[in-house]
Amino acid sequence: MKKGLKITAAVLGSLVGIYAILALFPRPDNYDLANPMLKDGDMPILIAHGGGNKEFPDNTLEAFYNAYSVDPNVMMETDVSITKDGVVILSHDTTLDRKTNVTGAIADWNYSDLIAQRVDFGYTNPTEDGVLTGERVHFKNADGAELYPTDVPYPDGVTPRDDEVFLATTLEELILAFPENRINVEIKQSGETGFRALKEIIRLLDEHDAFDRVVLASFHDEIYDEYRRLQKNGEVPDEFMYSPAYDAATRFFVLQLLKLDLFFGDGMCVFQLPMEQMGFDLATEALVNTAHRHNLAVHYWTINDIEEMEYLISIGADGIMTDYPHRLAEVYENYGK
Questions:
Q1: Helix (H, G, I), strand (E, B) or coil at 200
Q2: Which residues, listed in sequence order, are joined to residue 271 by a DSSP beta bridge?
Q3: CA 219, 321, 251: angle at the middle one, nearest 5?
Q4: Where does residue 262 rank: exposed (0-12), middle (13-18), buried (19+ CB within 10 A)?
């Protein structure tokens, strides 16, 4: 019996020793190059969610110009879908019902028709499952004011595309309008339509040499798996950047809790996380520091509360995504004073 206990103790001791070695072993860089998604200085990157969609209509070029007026280094966060005629446009939804004055799936509309009909993306309509359920409501900001493209503080030399209507915005327009800014692009469509959107996005990034400043995201596992396949097969340049869907983020969260994150091998560059999910606290200094050991950035969404903004600064978050760019910029300016 004593011999058995000694063997058991030896095995347990060996396992503890192996665990300690694994916990202390240097972590490999998941992203091999200098990571543009890491914060530049003391403050996290200011990320405008949909361009700052409580200040101007969601995912419009005008909203992004507004965010740019707050911080010329702002990171743009946008959602995209591909139209019937193969144009990738900015839209949080895969239908037009909630944000415009028309209805239907984006995949069933031609971009040329959206422009010819001056479809207005300046609405916040009631919908259920992407279908209009009531009267259309024109966008109003937090102060209750209806805003129009002429209300945007444009940079010198830029004029409104339309005086009254927030026109459809293409991803290409966003890339060209802000040639130095980082952009987060989330593909909203799934399946074959999502793959078609991804193929066109890859073409745009290649044409405009934007792989080093545009990071791709998706909550669809098949799209995330395609990111990894493209990277593994060398079909995209080394600068190609993406963030994970739920599965990969969950794997990293569990592994870092167990100090076994050495085994997290996905070649992405940034985690985009809520502060809390299903009762688990994701906004911890330990998680951020562990991610940094892998040369991975951590961005948090969607943060509109001042105290939460200040807390995320304190734990070393690399980016804060907000609907209120002016509010976050003010927090940065006053932090620590």
A1: helix
A2: 298
A3: 40
A4: middle
SS3 annotation, 256-274: HHCCCHHHCCCCCCEEEEC
pLDDT score at 15? 44
Task: For residue 47, list its beta bridge partners.
Answer: 75, 321
Domain range summary for the chain, segments of one domain joined by +: 29-334
Q: Spell out, as residue ranges, where the chain has pLDDT lower than 50.
A: 11, 15-16
Fold held by 29-334: TIM Barrel (3.20.20)
- C-alpha span between 75 and 324 (Å, rounded): 13
Query: Which tokens belong to 32?
Result: 């091999």
pTM (two decimals):
0.92
Looking at residue 252, what is its pLDDT? Answer: 92
Q: What is the pLDDT of residue 248?
A: 87
Cβ burial 158-183 (10 Å sphere, 16+ → b, else e) = eebeeeebbbbbbbbbbbebbeebbb
